[in-house]
Design goal:
alpha/beta; 9 strands; binds adenosine-5'-triphosphate; 2 domains; 262 residues; globular; 35% helix
């Protein structure tokens, strides 16, 4: 059996922002392998570089030193190759476009035929359980539905890699639980590779095959936890000793990386 393909491979990756107040070490010596089909969560306090790391993968920021490849390419080539879909903290849908027109936008830009656009919009609406809502405007949907529509938009051009920056952070816990289990099913069905930023320990443990614990000043990886939980995870798994043991290790990692002097 061949080893799974490395979707993101970072070696000794550093990114320093030069600011008026001096350099900010947003990422320091990050080593990480994300394999095809992994669900990787990035967790850590504010400012530890979670968003910056996703932005480097997406070629929205340039690293200062070290190396990173995305699907075996430079981030720039991966972006040009449409290697990933990006889901932001807020749904960021255009209010003057219907849901289906929002989802079709990247497809329009990429020059897909009208027919293909329609097919893909229908498929992705179904994937996120929004069939029948395509003609609605974003403001006619709940926050959770809007976020599902933005996931559909990121899925529409069928990139293998999904980058998700705290997509459910603004939602209440019940909606969040529901979307977490929906996202897991979607991941299972589509075999995507997902990089997911969160502040929530239960969310990270519930979703991930691998949890990357980070800490700030400088932004760095302090622990990488390979989950031992089965791929199929009912919400009740969160009460099992195995789940709680992983959550405990994440919490300890977060504590160890936290300096109370700052
Ligand atoms: N464009 C920029 N210019 C200067 N500093 C920046 C820039 N973007 C991010 N930073 C700094 O880099 C560090 C890492 O920021 P980043 O947004 O990646 O953290 P984060 O872990 O995603 O935080 P949060 O959980 O609050 O979103 C922070 O100290 C932040 O202030």
């Amino acid at each position: 059996m061949t080893a799974p393909f490395s979707v993101v491979s970072a070696k000794d990756l550093c990114l320093t922002f030069q600011t008026g107040d001096g350099p900010v070490h947003a990422l320091s010596n990050v080593d990480l392998e994300v394999k095809k089909g992994d669900f990787v969560s990035f967790i850590g306090p504010s400012g530890c570089g979670k968003t910056t790391f996703l932005r480097v993968i997406a070629d929205l920021e340039k690293h200062t030193s070290g190396t990173i490849t995305v699907n075996g390419m430079t981030p720039e080539n991966a972006r040009k190759d449409r290697s990933y879909g990006y889901v932001f903290q807020a749904a960021a849908l255009y209010p003057w476009r219907t849901i289906e027109k929002n989802i079709a936008l990247p497809l329009e830009i990429m020059g897909f035929s009208k027919e293909e656009q329609k097919k893909r919009v229908e498929q992705t609406l179904e994937l996120v359980n929004l069939t029948g809502f395509g003609k609605k405007f974003p403001w006619q949907l709940s926050g959770g539905m809007q976020q599902r529509a933005s996931i559909a938009r990121a899925l529409a051009f069928d990139a293998d890699l999904l980058l998700m920056d705290e997509p459910f952070g603004a939602l209440d816990e019940i909606v969040r639980d529901h979307l977490n289990s929906e996202l897991l099913k979607l991941w299972d069905r589509t075999d995507k590779t997902i990089c997911f930023v969160t502040h929530s320990i239960p969310e990270a443990v519930y979703l991930s095959t691998k949890i990357v614990v980070m800490s700030p000043r400088p932004g760095r990886v302090t622990d990488i936890i390979e989950s031992t939980l089965p791929r199929e995870r009912p919400l009740e798994i969160r009460e099992t000793p195995e789940f709680l043991a992983i959550a405990h290790r994440v919490r300890e990692g977060l504590k160890a990386g936290h300096s109370y002097e700052e």
